Amino acid sequence: MSKFIKYFLYSTTVLILCVFIVGFFILNNAEIESEMPPRPESIPQSALWVGGPDGGVYVVLDNKSNENPAIYNAKIFHSEGSTSYIGKLIINTPTNPSFDFNDTSFYTGWDGDTLYLKDGRSLSIYK
How far apart are CA 57 and CA 108, in angstroms? Predict the structure, then answer.
């Protein structure tokens, strides 16, 4: 009988350890989807939501009418509809300025003067 208990305890311990390892792996690799708040009427329909579960901003970018391809026209709005920034942003890699600015997945956040991209680049206020 004691052999049975010994094997049962070992088996149970290994099983619990496996469950914890799999659970840890799943939780660390799960992506949290950004919940976009209701869009206020003051924000253009073309604006992209850039944010996470704790908040974010709406972003409208284009590089029309700029001679320098590293400079983008930007309109950035707070989630409630007020304006955060309207003006020009310049990318920090002028030799490689292009990216799909209409794809939400390229952005990671806005800190008030810099718009961060997922690939490590950023766009800062152009003065």
Answer: 11
Beta carbons of 83 and 75 less than 8 angstroms apart? yes
The per-residue b/e assignment along 71-86, b for 16 or more CB within 10 angstroms, e otherwise, is bbbbbbbebeeeebbe
| Max intra-chain CA distance, the chain | 84
Task: Report, in angstroms and rounded to the nearest whole number, the Rg of the chain calculated over CA atoms.
Answer: 23
Residue 28, Cβ density class (10 Å: 0-12 exposed, 13-18 middle, ≥19 buried): exposed
Its pTM stands at 0.69
Q: What is the pLDDT of residues 31-49, one digit of tens each?
A: 555 567 888 999 999 999 9
Q: Which among 61, 60, 127, 123 is positioned nearest to 91, based on CA atoms? A: 123
